[in-house]
Amino acid sequence: PHSMCRLALWLLATPLCGVEGYVGLEGALWRAPARAFLASRKATKGFGEAFELPSDKVVEAVSKAGPRVTVADVAAAGGLSLAEARKGIVALAGSLGQEASLEVSKTGELSYTFPSDVKAELSKVSSAAAAREAWNEAKPALFTGLRIAFGVALFTSIAVIYAALIAIQSSSSSDRDDRDDRRRSNNNFGDGGFGGGGFGFGGPTLYFGPSPFDLFFYRPYYYYGGYETTYEDFEARRDPKPQMGFLEAVYSFVFGDGDPNDGREQRSLAAVAALARRNGGVLTAEQMAPLLSPTAYKDPGSSVNVNESWVLNAISRLNGRPEVADNGQIIYVFDDLQSTAGDATTGQKPPPIMEEQEIPFSLADEGQLGLVVALGVANLVGAAYLGAQLASLPAGLMLPGWLGAVQSIYPGLLAYAVSFFAAPALRYLNLSSTNSAIQERNRNRNDWLQVLRSGTVDGKLAEARKYRTSMRQISEGDTLYSTGKGAAEQGTKNDLADFDRRLGS
After folding, report:
1. Taking a C-beta distance cutoff of 8 angstroms, is the pair 168, 199 a contact?
2. pLDDT one-digit tens code per residue, 166-196
């Protein structure tokens, strides 16, 4: 027990007094993750349920960068802040227990080794992780089903509304025939009927203009111009491999298809981290601007200084720091990103610019949208027609049978018909301003990129290169201690004695 305590204490203090003399705050930053990781080793198969479940982003980043990683590797691969990556790695290692191992290098740096299929191993030891993975796999099919269900709801609404109107018209026709028979038998003329719809059941005759069935049924005395041409045009325009079915197109018309820029902040941070690692851990604002969301560029030669406040979020999340070069220019140094457990000569190459995509109104094709609008109009007109019929009933009168059920749910049918066009109308108005802002940000990114390529900041870039540092590659040969091996196997006796000597001095 005493030797194990000494070993644990040595692991926690190595960053403070390692071989290379790592002392002070830099080493102390690693104490918390080391302590949490060592605590996880108490179980033979890990504390899958006892530890906070790492986020999906961390698991994905480890899968992408692993299996042997540093905190900087995970942050760069997943577009995470260094703090988020460090916390996530400790949680993941704690959950996996003996399936993961921590290694301490001779310079006091930590690296982690995870299983090659970290998702599967995490699901084995944590029911919460298994449930989350099952949800992630089922989510696409579930949301597709919900989109289809919304499309089915449109057809259901149309069917209910027009079935009720058919029943009303049939009843009014029968009632009108009965009155005609009575008039002929009595040779008596009462109130004359009008053409169009009506409704009996002992109540008043109801009428509301032309029949809405003209939207569905062909009437030879009406002229439907251009129908065949429209259909042929639709067939000619249709993609041979449509992106969605018609029922999904109904949902797409009303609610859209999401934001194509979702997750962009994470991707941008990953690009900045990758660029910094490829540039020796130092960047200028001009290099970061095409990847972030900068303000409009101003000529440094003008009386107004260039605003670089937009870099603060990325700088703080990646533990960067500003430095003033000899020529007075500001550069940004990212020391904590300069460590890797992989190949220091390779790395993700970021794109020169990351523009935002404008948000489309819908990904459905024009033919699908045209048919959706036609059905929506039919539903709205039918709902209005049915509402007029019901409004003409005496106050408090309830219709018999299933028509009574339709009467009771009519407010919901009307709300659905109105919102079917109100929601996309509001979305269309909002998209105009949203896409205008996206266009402006993209112009700003391109302006900064042109400045970078024009050569006007070459002097600043040259000054930045003076601050470059080489990547600290942590190979397996540099490992001083690994939780995946026994203490006797690693020959830590002398190291522990050296640690006791340092502690006592």
Report:
1. yes
2. 888 876 655 555 555 555 555 444 444 434 4
Task: Render pLDDT for 215-260 as a digit per residue (tens, 0 to 9).
Answer: 333 333 333 333 333 323 333 443 444 468 899 999 999 999 999 9
Locus of tokens 């033979």: 44
Q: Find, among 339, 342, 386, 304, the residue nearest to 64 by Cα.
A: 342
The amino acid occupying position 148 is I
Whether the CB-CB separation of 107 and 19 falls below 8 Å is answered with yes
What 3-state DSSP class applies to 324? strand
CB-CB contact of 405 with 429 (8 Å): no
Coil, helix or strand at residue 467: coil
Cα–Cα nearest to 358, from 264, 448, 242, 241: 264
10 Å Cβ neighbour count for 95?
A: 26
| Sign of the dihedral defined by the CA atoms of residues 403, 408, 410, 416, in that order | negative
Show the tokens assigned to 312.
């603060």
Specify the amino acid at residue 93: A
The structure tokens 């070993």 sit at 7
Quote the strand ranges of 182-338, DSSP E: 282-283, 321-324, 330-333
- Put residue 349 in one of left, alpha, beta given phi > 0 → left and psi -120 to 50 → alpha: beta
What kind and span of H or E run contains 171? helix 127-186
Q: Which residues contact 269 (CB under 8 A, 6 or more apart)?
A: 79, 80, 81, 314, 317, 318
- Two structure tokens written together for 88: 């996530």
Q: In the chain, what's the furthest Cα-to-Cα distance? A: 127
Write the DSSP string, 142-170.
HHHHHHHHHHHHHHHHHHHHHHHHHHHHH
CB atoms closer than 10 angstroms to residue 455: 9
Cα within 13 Å of Cα(357), Cβ side: 10
**Taking the alpha carbons of 169, 170, 171, 177 in that order, is the dihedral positive or negative?**
positive
**What global pTM score does this model have?**
0.73
Q: Could you tell me the CA-to-CA distances from 182 to 177, 187, 195, 205 in Å, in that order?
A: 9, 8, 19, 16
Burial class (CB in 10 A: 0-12, 13-18, 19+), 213: middle
Task: Report the distance separating Cα 362 and Cα 251, nearest Å.
Answer: 9
- Which residue is listed with tokens 């640690």? 499
> Can you read off the two tokens belonging to residue 467?
């601050």
Please state, in angstroms and as integers, the Cα–Cα distance from residue 487 to each residue in 7, 57, 480, 490, following that order.
9, 34, 11, 5
**Are the C-beta atoms of 368 and 247 separated by less than 8 Å?**
no
As a whole number of Å, the end-to-end CA separation of the chain is 24
Q: Is the CB of residue 271 less than 8 Å from the CB of residue 291?
A: yes
Query: Which residues on neighbouring strands pair with residue 279, listed in sequence order?
Result: none
Closest C-alpha to 358, from 435, 442, 441, 445: 435
Element (H, E) at 391: helix 366-391
**Of 27, 202, 9, 222, whose CA–CA distance to 108 is shortest?**
27
Mean of per-residue pLDDT scores for the chain: 78
Q: What's the rounded Cα separation, in Å, for the pair 42 and 54?
A: 19
